[in-house]
Amino acid sequence: TAKESGRDQYCYYDAQLEEASQSKRLIEKELVNAISNSEFRLVYQPKIDMIKGTVNGLEALIRWRSTKLGDISPDVFIPIAEQNGQITSISDFVMEEACTKLAELQSHGFKHINMAVNLSARQFKDRELVDKLRSVIKRHRLKPSHLELELTETMIMEDKERARTTLRKLQEAGLKLAIDDFGTGYSSLSYLQYFRVDKLKVDRSFVMNIPDNSNDMELTAAIIALAHKLNLQVVAEGVETEAQSGFLNDNNCDEAQGYFFCKPIESDDLIDVLLKMEKQYPLENKISN
Ligand code: C2E
Ligand code: MG
Ligand code: MG
Ligand code: MG
């Protein structure tokens, strides 16, 4: 009967919830010692300049290999760490590690490559964020303009006035700002004029449907045009095919990032891969015109 199946359904969701909160507790427990056990590392995914075909920058992406739980995706553990505050020490680790790598790249002659770091919501709200960044940049003798912060729409929409002040301070300190996953938030476009940023990263969910979905193609082209009207650079995320790369290039997208060009690179391999890519790109001519 309807009543019984209703109850079954309730039990089914209940069991799922129970399972989810159990694995959440397990993850929280294992996160506690993850830093001291050196279970975190960063990998780096190149961003390709669509005109020159060279590597313009890197995005630092965290990886967690838990001794007990195996590999856990940042999409899973970042929101948990964000809720319980463990994100603070994780964020410090990420910033320190990314800046160390950037300094190493500089000393190996990669003077124009910049490093993008994903900010957590808590980090963005931290009143000491700007001071902390200034000090880590100074300690590693970096140029602030070589460091790019990726923020999401939801992070800045939460408290608009405070966000505007923070963004302005970060730019005054010389850092670059990018809106990550652009187009997935539900905010109005007018915020782009209220908040001054440098770049938009078109979300993978638009890019992945090129060339099969003409709506998403039109949206992507429109986002690029809009960004350029506002003097913003555009990066496309999750570019997996030549067709996508070609479409983005035809529509004047500035940079592209995705498996088609390069998967995230392990720290120890980074310099070798960058040296190889420097030679490869013009030859392979992966960027179609
Ligand atoms: P995101 O910043 O939007 O990063 C892009 C994600 O897409 C990364 O997943 C990347 O590995 C993946 N990706 C790149 N190219 C392709 C492609 O061609 N196809 C597909 N299918 N995927 C691609 P990842 O590394 O699992 O990170 C997931 C999310 O976790 C990130 O999304 C970001 O929001 C968050 N995250 C990662 N690292 C950090 C970090 O150090 N700090 C913070 N706060 N968040 C991080
Ligand atoms: Mg990102
Ligand atoms: Mg993104
Ligand atoms: Mg994304």
Automatic annotation (TrEMBL):
<protein>
    <recommendedName>
        <fullName>cyclic-guanylate-specific phosphodiesterase</fullName>
    </recommendedName>
</protein>
<feature type="domain" description="EAL">
    <location>
        <begin position="24"/>
        <end position="278"/>
    </location>
</feature>
